Amino acid sequence: MAVVVRSAAATGSSGYLTTNRWESDGDSLRLRVHAEPVGHWPERGDDFPDPMVDPTLPSEEYRELVRRNGSRSLARIGLDWELPAESSRVEWFGTGPGEAYPDSRHAVRVGRFRATVDELQTPYVRPQENGNRADIRWAAFTDGAGTGLCIVGEEPFHFAARRWTDQQLDAARHHNDLVPGPVIHLHTDHAVQRLGTAAVGPGVLPQHRLELASADFTFILTPPAAELRPPSGPPHRRPWCSGPLRAPMTRPCLGPMRGPRLILRRSRHVQTAKLPVWEDC
């Protein structure tokens, strides 16, 4: 099944045209996504007039970084899901145990980790973008009975899960402003922009910007492996995900587990999470 959608702000001329192709082999769902920018995208503003580029670099490299410094960019590109609040147990193979971003990952290692959704959050003094896990091969979200969803990437991806929306995170000034909602908001991202230091200084360096461009990525959706379930469950067939996939994941944007929605966030930086959200549902 192919679904073509345009993801954009309600009154904006710029957006993304996305083709979602769903395939099933009876045991799993494969979602192939192709997204490309359409319309007129406005120039990116910048509070820092001088380009953050070393003038002593070779001329060709210098010109390329100056170009990237003023290029249109996104904070992230990927899919946004809503999972039942009970699916708060997370196991993944990728970077961990703490958060990791493309320019902030020296304190992590690649391995297999477990945590709850609440434990995935990084409690900065002022609430802001946090909790991303990178280089993910697969991630499983389950409840106390081991029921849930496993997401596998054909290529390594990013994920972040929290009990509030990005808009609520952006509006919060203190941690007690963040009130858990009835669902878990899950990002599975093909790419994310670097953090930079925008909370206290300049934003993302030019070489670390996520430039506006087409994107292709694929996710495979299956139930969690038996080894992630209680010991009384059946033996696992594979080391990560197995078994037949059941509804409601065949109903995008409906029911207690909703998704996917293509989420594109434009910003000069990610750190302060001031990110307008464009959704196709």
Main beta sheet:
13 strands, antiparallel
Counting helices, strands and paired strands, the structural category is: mainly beta
According to CATH, what is the class? Mainly Beta
What is the end-to-end distance? 17 Å
Q: Report mean pLDDT, rounded to a whole number.
A: 79
Q: Mind telling me which CATH architecture this is?
A: Distorted Sandwich
Radius of gyration: 19 Å
The proportion of strand residues reads: 35-45%
- Multimeric organization: single chain
**Number of DSSP helices?**
2
What sequence of helices (H) and strands (E) makes up the elements?
EEEHEEEEEHEEEEE
Helix content: under 10%
Shape: globular
Number of domains: 1
Unreliable stretches (pLDDT < 50, length at least 5) are 230-240, 242-281
Under CATH, the topology can be stated as Beta-galactosidase, Chain A, domain 5
Could you tell me the number of beta strands? 13
Would you mind describing this structure in some detail?
With 281 residues, the chain is mainly β. The protein has a single domain (2-278), classed as Beta-galactosidase, Chain A, domain 5, CATH 2.70.98.10. Helices cover 6% and strands 40% of the residues. The longest helix has 11 residues, at 59-69. It is globular and about 60 Å long. The model is unreliable at 230-240 and 242-281 (pLDDT under 50).
